[in-house]
Design goal:
The protein is an alpha/beta fold and 177 residues long. The chain contains nine helices and four strands, in the order ααααααβαβαβαβ. One of its GO terms (biological process) is methylation.
Length: 177
C-alpha cells in the first residue's frame, strides 16, 4: 500500500475531522488519494479507545472498517496474552493482527497466517513499527497451513464471524476458516 507524501500530510492534518465531510470534499484535494485517506483517518479514529497503544504509534496503517470492527480490543488481546507463553505461536486467522501482536510478546517465534493479501501487507508494515520483528507474515489459508506446519506451543484461532454475503454468523460451524 503506497501513500503519497500529499496523502500522508492530508491524513495528519485531518485525522480529527469527520470522514463523511472529508469524503464530500474530495474534489478540493485532487493530489490526495481520498478513498485511502478516508480509510486511514477512520482507522486512526477507531483505535483511540479500542487499541490505544496502536493509536499512539505513528505510521501504522489501518484496514477497512469491517476488519477494525471485528478485531479484538487491546484489553481483550492483553488478557489473551496473559494466558499463554512459550517458544512458538501460530495465528491461523491473523486479521488486522491485534491478537497476534499482543500474543507475540509471550513467544520467541511467531507466524501470522491470513488469507487477505491486504491485511498481510498491513501486518508486514505495522509489526516492525510496534517492535515485533520476530513475527513471520504469510499470506495463505490457515487450514492448509495447519496440514504442514511445524510443532508449536500455541495455535490461535479467531475466525471471521461473517458469511460469504457479509451477514453475521453465530454457530462455529458457519465461521471461516
Amino acid at each position: 500500500m503506497y501513500l503519497s507524501p500529499e496523502t500522508i500530510l492530508f491524513i495528519r492534518e485531518h485525522r480529527n475531522d469527520d470522514v463523511h465531510s472529508l469524503a464530500l470534499q474530495a474534489k478540493r484535494y485532487p493530489q490526495v488519494d481520498m478513498p485511502l485517506a478516508i480509510v486511514q483517518i477512520a482507522g486512526w479514529q477507531a483505535t483511540v479507545s479500542k487499541i490505544p497503544s496502536w493509536h499512539a504509534t505513528e505510521g501504522l496503517l489501518y484496514p477497512r472498517h469491517l476488519s477494525l470492527e471485528q478485531c479484538s480490543s487491546e484489553v481483550t488481546a492483553l488478557y489473551k496474552a496473559s494466558l499463554v507463553h512459550g517458544e512458538g505461536l501460530v495465528d491461523l486467522t491473523g486479521g488486522f493482527g491485534i491478537d497476534c501482536a499482543f500474543l507475540a510478546t509471550q513467544f520467541k517465534t511467531v507466524t501470522y497466517i491470513e488469507r487477505q493479501e491486504e491485511l498481510c501487507e498491513l501486518a508486514m508494515h505495522n509489526f516492525p513499527l510496534l517492535g515485533l520483528k520476530h513475527i513471520r507474515v504469510q499470506n495463505g489459508d490457515g487450514v492448509e497451513y495447519l496440514q504442514q506446519m511445524p510443532a508449536v506451543d500455541c495455535i490461535f484461532l479467531d475466525p471471521a464471524r461473517r458469511n460469504e454475503h457479509g451477514g453475521k454468523t453465530v454457530a462455529i460451524s458457519d465461521c471461516e476458516p
